[in-house]
Amino acid sequence: MSATVDVAALTDDIFRVGVFPEGMPVEYRSEAVVFDSKPSGDSSRIRVEHGRISFEAYGRVFAADADGVLPFSKVRAEGERYFGCGERTAGLEKTGSHQVFWNVDPPEGHTAPFNNLYTSIPESLVDGRAHGLFLDYPGRVEFDLAKADPDRFTAVSSDAFVYYVFAGPTPRDVLAQYTELTGRISLPPLWALGNQQSKWGYEDADEVRAIARGYRERGIPCDVVYLDIDHMDGYRVFTFDSQRFPDPAGFVAELEADGFKVVCITDPGVKVDEDYGVYVSGRERDLYCKTKRGTEYRNVVWPGLCAFPDFTNPEASGGATSRRRSSRPAWPACGATWTSPRCSCPTTRRCPRTASIREAVTRATTRTSTTCTAR
């Protein structure tokens, strides 16, 4: 296969490699990357020999191609171990494993074979003299971290891909370089760092009050109470059940007075219901994801048949914020909202109403990454 290969030093310690099969445009635009400066790093740290790319910095060569740029295959140096890959089952170290980046929320629950959890979150937990690698690709990716071949790290994706290499040389440096590329979170409020109470299955507001009171009576510090989907009216986002949570504003104010912030979950599925203002408003503003044919994409989640906001559209993100502020009296009092990245079917393994969907699993692809240590 012929391909266009582009290698650049964005900074002295961050390198970008783009591999674009013949006929595909060279494109680096990405929702995962905020770094937008022109490449200005030390290109002498990039080595290209006999069609193989590697990098040299801090007295060692790392992230070296095993056979060339295609297929993706990196040499595993002696003593090199792999960590990261986002939310995963099993331990922190991933050496000798096969990792799938195609997120699922299986109705039967997560077990060890499901190593891909809700989100492929980039991680930088590494040890020793470190370097990092971030594969920026939104579709399904599989990593073989020295499992099939103990001397190689390989990745499989379906078409063009872009990856970034971080020179380290310490785990702290890798994390700093990664967040320089992808962005850094805002400083969290102090209360978000304290002990927090979260569970699924609250029967009503009185049960939540009793749990909160138990913390205070036992002298156990607690700063936050989370409300899962139980508080909603038929699992409709931005609502409270009028029977089980009859006075949401008073309920939240009561917990706040006792030192608890209240965080309410917001699922990404909006119930398809012509009498439900949130859904109707989103449809009228064209804020939902579409199928290839341009129709509204729907799937079954907790409320039943749902539409899904297109959060790549700034109007959808801004609309969610506005809705939180205006839909119910209690929302302005909530400390925050908890946006769940997952969607799953409530009680059955087969989706109701949609016979063509074999399992109640909404698959969500996100950017994928791994980090790996040098010796």
Explain what the structure shows.
The protein is α+β, with helices and mostly antiparallel strands and 375 residues long. It folds into two domains: 190 residues, Immunoglobulin-like (Sandwich); 150 residues, TIM Barrel (Alpha-Beta Barrel). It is 15% helix and 24% strand. It has five helices and 20 strands. Strand 3 and strand 4 form a beta hairpin. The two termini are 33 Å apart.
List the helices and strands and how they pair.
Layout: E1 3-9, E2 14-21, E3 46-49, E4 52-57, E5 60-62, E6 73-75, E7 82-83, E8 97-101, E9 130-136, E10 141-145, E11 152-156, E12 161-166, H1 171-182, E13 196-197, H2 205-217, E14 224-227, H3 248-257, E15 261-266, E16 270-271, H4 277-284, E17 298-301, E18 304-307, H5 314-326, E19 336-339, E20 370-373
Parallel strand pairs: 13-14, 14-15, 15-19
Antiparallel strand pairs: 1-2, 2-12, 3-4, 4-5, 6-11, 7-20, 8-10, 9-12, 9-20, 10-11, 16-18, 17-18
Summarize the structure.
This protein has 375 residues and is an alpha+beta fold. The protein is built from 5 helices and 20 strands.
CATH class term of the largest domain:
Mainly Beta
Strand line-up of the largest beta sheet: 1-2-12-9-20-7
Distance between the termini: 33 Å
CATH topology of the largest domain: Immunoglobulin-like
The count of domains is 2
Overall geometry: globular
Global mean pLDDT: 81
CATH-defined superfamily of the largest domain: glycosyl hydrolase (family 31)
CATH architecture name of the largest domain: Sandwich
Radius of gyration equals: 24 Å
Strand content: 15-25%
Task: Catalogue the unreliable spans.
Answer: 121-127, 324-337, 343-375
* Secondary-structure-derived class: alpha+beta
Question: Which H/E pattern describes the elements?
Answer: EEEEEEEEEEEEHEHEHEEHEEHEE
